[in-house]
């Protein structure tokens, strides 16, 4: 977590390695939030009521990076400071500077965490995000993140920009969020984009916006009333009324946050039992099933959930002969409709490949 710069309201930055990150195409003619929520609903084994989630949209509105984390991954003492924050965002958002024109890997290491993004030189958003926890000063974790991002970019010689030190974040005069590392600006988000990236409970945020809007309206009305009272010699009374209203509004916001948290906890407990009994297979469960079947020498570098119950996994192995065995094992798994290995390449003693696994529908056939 990183606090705001002096004299600026707080924007909380949380570790990216707690989030599941997906890049997806969206329709620029439709609201991005609804499209992202539908995609997350399909990709996550948990209902949206049980996860913190947000997204960042490309300037042309055609792509988005969505991120979600199970709520229990955050300790109560962390959540306690969220209601008063301007926004709560994952740390990789601080690396979303203006898109470069050449392939580029940006890696930031600080306080036992490593997060990086990979740009292909064409897209307005990174095409790959990597994050992991690490011991303070653990250079191997940084090197692993760089290697993973280069592999996912398909650019083994992509330039690497390394950042170190705490993330500083605050808002400028235009209310844009400005992120800095070691005094250097690394990203800037407008107010609407910052609201989209905010991972907190959406019903709480909606209630907060409603209260803030009402407070602004009443603030303007009271300002007018204050001017009238000043003209009539009642400035002191108008000032007292304004302070009283602001105090009630703040108390209402704090009470709403506590009530939302109480209702949310009760609803989560009740719905979790139903969800465990009724939920269908989802991509994260399929990924766990595939991972359990892979040989020890094979490791995954990226996963994408496609339509039609298909899971695509980019993988590497120093032992190319294991690829065929891995494919055979997957074909024998219950619930697997088909397996296809594509783009098998071998270089310098290491094989990379893409394996597409189609899972059967509830009726036992491929859907």
Q: Outline, from the CA principal axes?
A: elongated
- SSE topology string: EEHEEHEEEEHEEEEHHHHEEHEE
Strand order of the largest sheet: 8-7-6-9
Q: In terms of structural class, how would the helical and strand content be classed?
A: alpha+beta
The number of distinct structural domains comes to 3
Query: How many helix segments?
Result: 8
* Oligomeric grouping of the chains: single chain
Q: Could you give a short account of the major beta sheet? A: 4 strands, mixed
Query: What is the count of β-strands?
Result: 16
Low-confidence stretches: 1-8, 275-279, 363-367
Strand content: 25-35%
* Average pLDDT reading: 82
Helix content: 25-40%
Rg, alpha carbons: 24 Å
Distance between the termini: 43 Å
What report would you give on this structure?
Helix 5 packs antiparallel against helix 6. The protein has a 4-stranded mixed beta sheet with strand order 8-7-6-9, covered by helices on one side. A 4-stranded antiparallel beta sheet has the order 13-14-16-15, sandwiched between helices. Strands 2-4-3 form a 3-stranded antiparallel beta sheet. Helix content is 37%, strand content 30%. It has helices spanning 32-43, 76-79, 139-153, 191-197, 202-231, 235-278, 283-293, 321-331, and strands at 11-14, 20-25, 51-57, 63-70, 87-90, 104-110, 113-119, 128-133, 159-164, 167-171, 177-181, 184-189, 299-306, 310-317, 336-347, 350-359. By secondary structure, it is of the alpha+beta class.
């Amino acid at each position: 977590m990183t606090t705001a710069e002096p004299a600026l309201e707080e924007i909380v930055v949380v570790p990216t390695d707690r989030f599941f990150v997906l890049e997806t195409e969206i329709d620029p003619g439709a609201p991005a939030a609804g499209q992202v929520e539908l995609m997350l609903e399909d990709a996550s084994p948990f209902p949206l009521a049980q996860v913190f989630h947000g997204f960042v949209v490309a300037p042309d509105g055609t792509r988005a990076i969505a991120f979600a984390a199970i709520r229990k991954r955050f300790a109560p003492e962390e959540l306690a400071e969220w209601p008063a924050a301007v926004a709560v965002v994952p740390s990789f958002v601080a690396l979303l500077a203006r898109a470069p024109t050449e392939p580029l890997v940006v890696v930031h290491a600080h306080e036992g965490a490593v997060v990086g993004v990979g740009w292909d030189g064409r897209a307005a958003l990174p095409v790959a995000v990597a994050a992991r926890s690490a011991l303070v000063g653990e250079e191997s974790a940084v090197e692993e993140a760089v290697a993973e991002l280069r592999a996912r970019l398909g650019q083994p010689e992509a330039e690497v920009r390394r950042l170190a030190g705490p993330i500083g974040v605050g808002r400028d005069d235009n209310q844009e969020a400005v992120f800095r590392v070691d005094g250097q600006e690394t990203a800037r988000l407008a107010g609407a984009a910052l609201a989209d990236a905010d991972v907190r409970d959406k019903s709480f945020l909606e209630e907060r916006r409603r209260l803030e809007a009402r407070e602004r309206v009443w603030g303007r009305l009271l300002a007018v009333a204050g001017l009238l009272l000043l003209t009539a010699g009642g400035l002191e009374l108008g000032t007292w009324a304004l302070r009283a209203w602001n105090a009630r509004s703040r108390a209402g916001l704090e009470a709403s946050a506590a009530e939302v948290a109480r209702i949310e906890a009760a609803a989560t407990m009740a719905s979790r039992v139903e969800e465990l009994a009724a939920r269908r297979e989802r991509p994260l469960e399929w990924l766990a099933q595939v991972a359990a079947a892979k040989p020890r020498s094979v490791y995954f570098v990226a996963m994408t959930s496609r339509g039609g119950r298909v899971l695509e996994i980019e993988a590497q192995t120093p032992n190319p002969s294991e690829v065929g065995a891995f494919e055979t094992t997957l074909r024998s798994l219950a619930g697997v409709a088909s397996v296809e290995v594509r783009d098998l390449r071998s270089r310098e003693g290491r094989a990379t490949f893409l394996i597409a696994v189609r899972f059967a529908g509830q009726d036992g056939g491929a859907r």
